Amino acid sequence: MIRLLYISHAAPMISDEQVQDILLSSRRNNSASSITGILIHGGGLFMQVLEGPEQDVLRKYVKILDDPRHSDAQILYISPANDRIFEKWSMGGIESDPLQFQYISELRARRLQVIEPNKFTETMREFARRLRDAK
């Protein structure tokens, strides 16, 4: 199993309905592939975490690259995972203020460096807490 984090730019003028369509289709399709994760959006950015069987996650990411609702997708982090952080969500969704992307921007700036696995995991667990709190 792996966990993959990427960031991308939302298409100009993307609507809330389009974002909801992304979430609904992800929830429907991810269950069949045993993929779980979260989509965070706001300020013209998307950030998504996918976790699941390596080949399924990589196939999903390649498919995501062709989606015209975003551009400039960049993998920020990819790692093996022993357990799921987003096990309860085939695709959770959080709308976020752009300032809350600050830590993700730091990961992006440091994407060519080695990032401490516990720092990455801590950030993912914070997203999971936010999902639980939103219910």
TrEMBL record:
It comes from the Bacteria. GO terms for molecular function: blue light photoreceptor activity; FAD binding. It holds the Pfam family BLUF. Residues 1-92 form the BLUF domain. This is Blue light sensor protein. It comes from Janthinobacterium lividum.
